[in-house]
Specification:
The structure holds three protein chains of three kinds. By secondary structure, chain A is mostly helical. Chain A has helices at residues 2-14, 17-22, 37-41, 46-75, 90-97, 99-103, 108-116, 118-139, 148-163, 167-189, 198-222, 227-253, 273-298. Chain A has 13 helices and no strands. By secondary structure, chain B is mainly alpha-helical. Chain B has one domain. Helices cover 78% and strands 2% of the residues of chain B. Chain B has 22 helices and two strands. A two-stranded antiparallel ribbon of chain B has the order 1-2. Chain B is globular. Chain C has one domain (2-125): Helix Hairpins (Orthogonal Bundle). Chain C is 75% helix and 0% strand. Chain C is elongated. The relative contact order of chain C is 0.12. The chains are: A mainly alpha, B mainly alpha, C mainly alpha. Chains in contact: A-B, A-C, B-C. Chains A and C meet through α3, α4, α5, α6 and α7 of A and α2, α3, α4 and α5 of C.
């Protein structure tokens, strides 16, 4: 490896590499075929034009009425920012006053979404899972959505990616990515203690993964994060979430104790399941974010 | 400890969810198909058991999702009505899977089939959750799951046309969810609750004090509008024929038969468990549903008469049938809502039968879809022909079949009402039945009358055996006849189930 | 008049949210460009989140991180915040899905104008 680098350096000094790289030094822009006339042809018939106009008028009308009605409603709502609103009732009070004791979470929002109303949050993680599934159906390469020429073009791009290592970018990314990850992990692990939690921390870690993939290329990324890892992590994390919550729902509904210690409020290892769930959610979100990027960019993970 | 059967709703939802989550791990579509089928069958059996126990003890129980009861944590609730609807969702899901098995194999690429079943499983879970939920925000989350998953099963066929249809569907659905969400937010502002029992208590106390009446009216309007947009009520139906007509058979059956119904079930719960049917009538929300329901019934039938593509014709017929349901809700009495729910069940067993039969007919005739080219296909595949005929006759409203009973119940409930509404309802029922006959009977005649196309494909078509279809068509036919003959026990269950939903005191 | 102005100022967040909702709604209906449709969908959803978040706010109180006393009168209402969180995740998912649909159509037809796409798809079928 070292000798190869060395020889490349010598080649570079001697000016020998230029020709070799030149073979595929350009990225061919793939603009799909598009007929210029299409735009003019769209609304050609009189009937279609009439329909369009009536559609636009009725849409504007509906929207104006809707906004007017909503504005009227707004003025009839409880006053903004006052303490006596119907919304700040016994429910909010209980979350704030008893939350610490019942869920062990210092962050009342985390306590609410991952304990009191955990079923919603489970649904929400599933939405993310479904979305990534949809994007996979649409964009994962197969014979429906990719042609041979596109395939060869993408192969070309991949080769360019390998060839054009940008040392400044890579060195800096190597410095930054661990920090991003550390911060992401911090946000996830402190989800029950401070603002943050699985979703925000996961998004941060996902950004780190994307940054790494952008600067080091797909091959480096796939050496530790392939489609298999992606599937394994997301399904395991969501499955873990589902089974843990199913256990806790079942025990709760049947009036049994879960036997999960809540710990001392304020400590990292506290608040029962919330920490574990935050970790699961964080993993799902991080993988999903990277998955979105990768599927959009290459049609593969 | 609760009685053991009270764990069933929770178990059903989580069973679907967990099997859905497992799907990406499967390599082949076959295993995924079998697991999905198993899960829906198990769920159907469980829902049947639940129906038995809830009907026997005539109760509606609340199941706390977690350790915190009503105003604090999430809850689901189940009674007779929910159990019956869940039974319908799960069994129709299983039968649609069977009926569309071969077209799933043809339409969807093998490596993506597990993802398709992932969507179906989560769709199933979301429909069950919408049926059982006792919390409006959970309702919103599962509406979104439902939206995404149903769009996904439309576009799973992966042609440019279905993708364009999916975009239409998605845009309309997003408008609907936007309206529903803003309605929910406003409702939260003025009540401070998200769980249905507490909401109802608060809403009724607001009504009795007369406070926040304007926002309350608008909330009712917005939430109803949001759900009706998603359920393809008349002016918002334009996406449906393309989405339902273009998707693969199982998707079309599930979308037409179940997904639209899941939203309406939530609407009914909204009417009974959050507001009350009297309040809804007092706020005149149902009048809008009534008017648009009637227009939808007539307009969609006329469109269906002019449609050549068999699946799109069936999709337009779905719009018309949704119109019946909304008309029933719009009548604004409990009897009419019972008829509307009966119509939900009848349509849920009839439309998947029609879609599966249409696809079987086109399978034996070289995958043609236009009615003209399907001439004589019933002679090649007689079972599919009989099934299509039976389904079509039921849609028209021939006695002894399900469609007749639901129309009869709707008419019966309309008779009890005051004059203009009564006449409007009865006339539109009669007119739309005639219109239904005008497109189903030519279609039925067409598939039975011999043609060149039939001769061309006959030998080849007869080779194609499809046992799963036969099983599913046979069961659906039994269900169609059952809903036509045994309406009394079913409507009794619906009626007593509705009273348990709440909203008694105003 | 000053009463009206005062209430406009008092309800500024809600009014802003409603106007943004209208902008998102109308563009979602009228834009032909699919990317702009996605943007308007996001505007619409964000306006609802703004509305929801403003409902939780209570003058003079702090974020619901309970480090001090267990007294509900110190903190804002945590429920809308949690609901917004759920809503955001949903809207991210929908945007991703929508973008993927648009990417596929763009690859095929080379345009993001929905009318053109429909027309080209129809032509293709003929």
């Amino acid at each position: 490896m070292a000798s190869k680098k060395h020889s490349r350096f010598i080649d570079w000094v001697n000016g020998d590499t230029a020709e070799k790289v030149h073979e595929y030094k350009f990225i061919q822009k793939t603009v799909p075929p598009h007929s210029e006339q299409a735009h003019d042809e769209v609304i050609s018939t009189r009937k279609a034009r009439l329909f369009n106009i009536s559609y636009e008028i009725s849409a504007v009308l509906v929207c104006v009425i809707l906004v007017a009605v909503l504005l009227f409603t707004v003025f009839n709502l409880p006053l903004f920012g006052s303490a006596g609103n119907p919304a700040s009732n016994e429910v909010a009070e209980r979350y704030l006053e008893k939350g610490l004791e019942e869920t062990g979470a210092v962050n009342a929002v985390a306590g609410m979404i991952l304990d009191y109303r955990a079923f919603d949050t489970f649904g929400e993680s599933s939405v993310l899972f479904i979305a990534v599934g949809c994007v996979m159906i649409l964009l994962m390469r197969d014979k429906n959505n990719i042609s041979a020429t596109e395939d060869s073009l993408e192969e070309n791009e991949r080769l360019i990616e390998i060839e054009t290592n940008d040392p400044i970018l890579q060195k800096i990314v190597l410095l930054i990515v661990p920090c991003i990850f550390l911060f992401g992990i911090y946000v996830i692990l402190n989800g029950h203690l401070s603002p943050g939690g699985g979703f925000s921390g996961g998004a941060i870690m996902g950004a780190g993964l994307i940054l790494f993939a952008v600067s080091f290329g797909i091959d480096a990324m796939q050496s530790f994060f392939s489609i298999k890892t992606f599937k394994a992590i997301t399904t395991t994390a969501l499955m873990c979430y589902a089974t843990l919550k199913a256990y806790s729902f079942f025990m709760g509904a049947n009036g049994l104790e879960t036997g999960i210690p809540l710990g001392t409020p304020g400590a990292i290892l506290s608040s029962g399941l919330i920490l574990v769930l935050d970790i699961c959610v964080g993993l799902i979100v991080a993988c999903t974010m990277y998955g979105f990027y990768s599927l959009f960019a290459r049609g593969d993970i | 400890m609760l009685p053991w059967y009270q764990n069933i709703p929770f178990a059903c939802i989580f069973l679907c969810m967990i099997s859905g989550i497992m799907m990406p791990l499967f390599k082949s579509g076959k295993a995924a198909f079998h697991l999905t089928l198993c899960v829906s069958l198990i769920n159907a059996i469980l829902a049947g058991v639940l129906l038995y126990f809830t009907a026997k003890e005539s109760i509606r129980f609340v199941y706390v999702m977690g350790h915190f009861p009503a105003p604090w944590g999430n809850e689901i609730a189940a009674g007779k009505l929910e159990a019956l609807l869940a039974l319908m969702f799960s069994s129709v899901m299983a039968l649609s899977l069977l009926g569309g098995k071969s077209s799933i194999h043809d339409d969807i690429l093998e490596p993506k089939q597990p993802l398709y079943f992932l969507m179906l499983n989560l769709l199933h879970a979301s429909m069950l959750a919408l049926t059982y939920t006792n919390d409006l925000f959970t309702g919103y989350v599962f509406i979104e799951i439902n939206t995404l998953a149903s769009c996904a099963i439309v576009m799973a066929r992966d042609t440019a046309k279905t993708i364009a249809a999916t975009i239409r569907y998605l845009v309309v659905s997003l408008l609907g969810s936007g309206l529903f969400l803003i309605g929910l937010v406003l409702l939260y502002c003025i009540t401070g609750h998200l769980l249905m029992p507490n909401l109802q208590e608060k809403v009724l106390s607001l009504v009795s004090t007369g406070k926040y009446m304007e926002p309350l009216t608008i909330v009712a309007g917005l939430m109803t509008a949001g759900i009706s947009v998603k359920a393809a009520l008349f002016p918002f139906h334009a996406w449906l024929p393309f989405a339902h007509g273009g998707a693969t058979t199982t998707s079309s059956s599930v979308l037409s038969g179940l997904v639209l119904k899941a939203y309406i079930v939530l609407l009914i719960k909204l009417f009974f468990s959050v507001f009350s049917i009297e309040l809804v009538s007092a706020l005149h929300v149902n009048d809008i549903l009534f008017v648009f329901g009637i227009i939808g019934m007539i307009y969609a039938s006329i469109k269906a008469i002019r449609e050549e593509h068999i699946k799109r014709m069936l999709a337009y017929s779905s719009v018309a049938q949704i119109g019946y349901i909304f008309m029933g809700l719009g009548l604004g009495t409990k009897v009419a809502v019972i008829a509307a729910i009966y119509q939900i069940i009848v349509h849920a067993v009839t439309k998947p039968l029609l879609f599966a039969s249409a696809s079987r007919l086109s399978e034996v005739q070289g995958h043609e879809k236009s009615l003209y080219r399907l001439r004589g296909s019933a002679r090649t595949a007689p079972l599919a022909g009989i099934a299509f005929t039976l389904g079509g006759l039921s849609m028209i409203g021939i006695p002894l079949l399900g469609g007749f009973m639901s129309k009869f119940l709707l008419a019966e409930s309309a008779v009890l009402l005051a004059s203009p509404r009564q006449w409007a309802a009865l006339l539109s029922l009669a007119l739309s039945s005639v219109l239904n006959a005008l497109y189903y009977i030519p279609a039925i005649i067409a598939i039975w009358s011999p043609s060149d196309f039939m001769l061309k494909y006959q030998e080849e078509g007869k080779q194609k055996k499809n046992i799963t279809y036969s099983v599913s068509a046979f069961s659906f036919m039994v269900l169609v006849v059952l809903t036509g003959c045994a309406s009394t026990p079913v409507s009794e269950i619906i009626s007593s189930g509705l009273s348990l939903l709440g909203g008694a005191s105003l | 008049m000053s009463d009206f102005l005062q209430s406009v100022i008092a309800y500024r967040f809600e009014i802003g949210a409603v106007i943004l909702f209208g902008i998102g709604f109308i563009n979602l209906l009228l834009q032909k460009n699919l990317i702009k449709k996605i943007i308007s969908f996001n505007v619409m959803d964000s306006s609802i989140f703004l509305f929801l978040a403003s409902q939780g706010f209570i003058e003079g109180r702090i974020a619901p991180i309970i480090t001090g006393a267990n007294d509900a009168s110190l903190y804002i209402n945590p429920i809308p915040t949690g609901l917004v969180l759920t809503g955001i995740v949903v809207s991210v998912s929908v945007s991703a899905f929508f973008l993927a649909l648009v990417q596929r159509l763009y690859k095929k037809y080379g345009t993001v104008n929905f009318d053109e796409i429909i027309m080209l798809a129809k032509k293709e079928a003929e």
